[in-house]
Q: What sequence folds into this?
């Protein structure tokens, strides 16, 4: 799935439509609460809306998708990972539903681990509520990443280049995104 | 697998819809800002792309961009959306109704026919040759309930019915139909088509393969030029469906077009599908269909019937989506408020008990300088249930010091404070459950005439009920005597009681100790359940009250009496340095939070700052004092302890049991004859034996220079 540059001037990185769950059969009854007020009235009784040429499928696969954006935060001066998830028909997923799919949260540790605090806030460009990984721990662990090496003080240019990759290697784990090794090796 | 055998009806997999949240956001915005009640149909665009995954079909998607812009400068007709390789743009129309009844009352059959007719027209006029995406024109009906933020909707993908239906002669993966060389050439040609921005979003096209195995992709309008030299010619389309045995829905109208336009009886078609962005000929299908044209098709005027209403999990009902959690401002405010507290818990205070704060019910007696500030502080801590009691009206001088009021509340004689305060709280945080009670608190030393007796008793009962139905009571009134009755009632029921009182430049904030009797009707909020066992073993409250922490009156040697009449003007108006009320209110609320997090709650012992016994700094919020007395002139604050007195006019066992025995009659007696309380508790005796003291009591508050009292 390719990374797309967004069309805004001040942009953000986006990665969209990532499928985060396996297809599974959905029992019609258990989904009834997601359609509140499902009406009893059906389409016109007179005509048959399904003709012989229409394939009727009996199983309904429910898949969950996730969009990820990386946006720079001026307040915290670090990149921040925004995410939102939704079903195949577009219905947005709530945090507790998303947490079931994300690896860091499905682990035995409590979801509010040291780095993974997910909060709901307005997306700075789209002006709609998205979930984000709260950035207040970011500068701490970035310092750890950069000072932890035994190669002495890295050059500033190298640091800047590697910054986003390093940041993402930590943050991406929370949501199950990994950097392909090829990208890391290409840096040399 | 190849599907052989003539005569089997060609079955198409229906389109599936997917509506991005942003679409509903923009529709709401358009409804509210532009369209109002105008329910004319709205032209919209849908987006789809060829299937890109062997196990998952693609959808027809609606995004925010599907709708016209909601900004005021641009026109409300969208320019036909230019797509890209990931988003093939398809025209559609939206009928959004204003009520649920009109939603159900729409003539679905008629609407479907109208859209089918448009497709039919486009087929015959040649529009399809210019812009083939119109073959997949769709229809959407909806009802946006902007009060509940729920959206009811129903898609239709009109498909012209072939009568009799087309039959399938053969269907197999494209890789099995082409030779290896041909397949390679076809893939290359298709990938070029997909990579060019001019053609990437053209969903219907021709694939011709020459005898030299070279393939070419052409526009539909070039069909005539492809007719020669024994080429293989396939009618190709972007197929969103992934199924191995069925083509996707767009083929329906494509076949209708082919047979109406070019009168073909046999059609070879290519269901074009991809994997990871490249043509995938094992996923793509090639098929051969037989079409029998009925008479009616030659006549342009006769529009064929159509099907296409989308099923909802197999049922012929509309879909509904509720977006309150992401659109309702109140819900967003709630989750933002929660965020702050959760952040605090995450970063600084892992043992913060947010549940108790969200569920506790606070009663504030007094909605003045202290009441307003306490209410705000409580909300900041996540408290949602607040009741304010005050019988006064907002005066012109109030807004400056009483932070919930503004000038508007003072007009026309001034609103009742209790009501105005609740309004203000709701404006700050709509999810607060706030109630205002306009009521005076009966006070000793203010005797009542016999006509007023009944209403005073009624007030007493009402106060008693209020106290009974809340977990925490704040005494924030402006006289000492008005605190007496609430103190007694709280002592009787062991409610957490916090007093704040102001002098000119000093303040007192204290928590009352528990009442003299152990029976606690409702402690489930102050203490976790396991503590009731602990308490049974821990005789923290004795009937002689020796160990209990004191209440506001425990240190008094006179009963509360009328402090307001016969005073000079400046003594009648409570005049205090403005900084005191916010300080005292804030401390009062922080004290409460400390109590709520203390394992013993109301029974917690008092701690003093800098105590020698090591203090309880294992409690994350710090120590839990009994009294805090502050002085502004010295910018100083002291934590003090005062134990309960056996002669307390409000909380000693004598008084409380007398109240339990005689109820309201007792109260009335105390109100009308304050010396009665002194006699009852033995204070009269005490006074006689203490006549050598020269006491100068300020009737408003305890003198800030009182020494620490420790028994």
A:
């Amino acid at each position: 799935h390719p990374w797309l540059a967004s069309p805004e001037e001040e942009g953000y990185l986006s990665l969209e439509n990532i499928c985060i769950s396996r297809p599974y059969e959905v029992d019609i009854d258990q989904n009834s609460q997601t359609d509140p007020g499902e009406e009893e009235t059906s389409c016109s009784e007179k005509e048959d809306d399904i003709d012989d040429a229409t394939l009727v499928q009996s199983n309904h696969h429910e898949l969950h998708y996730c969009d990820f954006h990386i946006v720079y935060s001026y307040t915290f001066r670090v990149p921040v990972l925004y995410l939102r998830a939704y079903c195949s028909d577009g219905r947005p997923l709530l945090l507790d539903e998303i947490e079931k799919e994300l690896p860091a949260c499905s682990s035995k540790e409590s979801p509010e681990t040291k780095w993974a605090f997910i909060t709901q806030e307005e997306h700075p460009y789209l002006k709609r509520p998205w979930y984000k990984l709260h950035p207040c721990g970011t500068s701490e662990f970035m310092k750890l990443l950069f000072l932890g090496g035994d190669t002495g003080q890295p050059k500033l240019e190298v640091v800047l280049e590697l910054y986003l990759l390093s940041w993402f290697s930590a943050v991406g784990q929370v949501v199950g995104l990994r950097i392909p090794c090829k990208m890391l090796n290409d840096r040399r | 697998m190849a599907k052989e055998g003539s005569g089997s009806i060609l079955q198409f997999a229906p389109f599936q819809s997917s509506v991005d949240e942003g679409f509903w956001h923009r529709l709401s915005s358009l409804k509210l800002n532009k369209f109002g009640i105008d329910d004319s149909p709205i032209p919209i665009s849908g987006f789809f792309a060829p299937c890109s995954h062997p196990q998952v079909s693609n959808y027809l998607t609606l995004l925010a961009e599907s709708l016209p812009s909601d900004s005021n400068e641009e026109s409300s007709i969208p320019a036909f959306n230019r797509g890209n390789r990931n988003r093939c743009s398809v025209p559609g129309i939206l009928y959004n109704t204003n009520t649920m009844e009109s939603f159900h009352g729409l003539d679905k059959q008629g609407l479907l026919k109208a859209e089918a007719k448009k497709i039919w027209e486009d087929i015959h006029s040649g529009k399809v040759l210019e812009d083939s995406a119109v073959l997949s024109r769709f229809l959407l009906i909806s009802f946006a309930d902007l009060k509940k933020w729920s959206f009811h909707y129903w898609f239709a993908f009109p498909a012209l019915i072939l009568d009799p239906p087309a039959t399938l002669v053969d269907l197999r993966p494209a890789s099995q139909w082409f030779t290896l060389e041909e397949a390679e050439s076809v893939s290359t040609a298709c990938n070029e088509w997909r990579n060019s921005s001019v053609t990437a979003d053209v969903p219907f096209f021709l694939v011709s393969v020459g005898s030299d195995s070279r393939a070419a992709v052409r526009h539909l309008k070039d069909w005539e030029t492809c007719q020669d030299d024994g080429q293989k010619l396939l009618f190709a389309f972007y197929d969103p469906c992934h199924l191995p045995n069925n083509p996707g829905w767009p083929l329906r109208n494509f076949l209708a077009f082919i047979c109406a336009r070019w009168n073909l009886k046999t059609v070879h078609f290519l269901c074009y599908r991809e994997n990871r962005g490249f043509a995938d000929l094992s996923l793509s299908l090639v098929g051969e269909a037989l079409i029998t044209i009925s008479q009616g098709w030659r006549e342009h005027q006769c529009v064929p019937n159509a099907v296409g209403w989308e099923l909802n999990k197999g049922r012929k009902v509309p879909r509904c989506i509720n977006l309150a959690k992401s659109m309702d401002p109140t819900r967003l405010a709630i989750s933002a408020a929660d965020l702050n507290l959760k952040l605090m818990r995450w970063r600084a205070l892992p043992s913060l008990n947010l549940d108790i704060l969200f569920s506790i019910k606070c009663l504030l007696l007094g909605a003045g300088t202290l009441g307003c500030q306490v209410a705000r502080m409580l909300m900041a801590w996540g408290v949602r249930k607040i009741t304010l009691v005050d019988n006064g009206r907002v005066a012109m001088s109030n807004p400056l010091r009483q932070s919930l009021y503004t000038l508007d509340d003072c007009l026309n004689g001034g609103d009742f404070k209790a009501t105005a305060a609740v309004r203000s709280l709701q404006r700050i945080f709509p999810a607060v459950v706030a109630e205002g009670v306009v009521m005076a608190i009966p006070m000793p030393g203010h005797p009542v005439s016999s006509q007023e007796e009944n209403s005073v008793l009624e007030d007493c009962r009402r106060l008693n009920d209020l106290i009974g139905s809340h977990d925490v009571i704040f005494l924030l009134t402006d006289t000492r005597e008005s605190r007496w009755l609430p103190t007694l009632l709280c002592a009787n029921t062991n409610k957490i009681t916090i007093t704040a009182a102001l002098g000119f430049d000093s303040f007192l904030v204290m928590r009352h100790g528990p009442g003299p009797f152990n029976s606690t009707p409702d402690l489930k909020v102050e203490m976790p359940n396991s503590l009731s066992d602990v308490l049974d073993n821990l005789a923290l409250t004795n009937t002689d009250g020796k160990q209990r922490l004191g209440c506001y009156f425990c240190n008094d040697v006179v009963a509360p009496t009328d402090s307001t009449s016969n005073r000079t003007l400046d003594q009648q108006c409570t005049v205090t340095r403005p900084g005191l009320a916010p300080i005292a209110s804030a401390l009062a609320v922080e004290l409460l939070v400390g109590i709520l997090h203390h394992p013993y709650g109301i029974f917690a012992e008092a701690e003093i700052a800098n105590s020698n016994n090591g203090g309880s700094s294992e409690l994350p919020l710090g120590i839990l004092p009994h009294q805090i007395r502050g002085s502004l002139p010295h910018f100083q604050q002291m934590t003090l302890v005062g134990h309960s007195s056996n002669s307390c006019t409000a909380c000693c066992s004598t008084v409380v049991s007398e109240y339990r025995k005689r109820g309201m009659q007792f109260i009335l007696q105390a109100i009308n004859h304050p010396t009665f309380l002194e006699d009852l508790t033995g204070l009269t005796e005490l006074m006689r034996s203490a006549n050598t003291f020269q006491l100068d009591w300020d009737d408003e508050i305890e003198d800030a220079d009182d020494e620490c009292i420790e028994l």
Summary: Chain B has a mean pLDDT of 85.
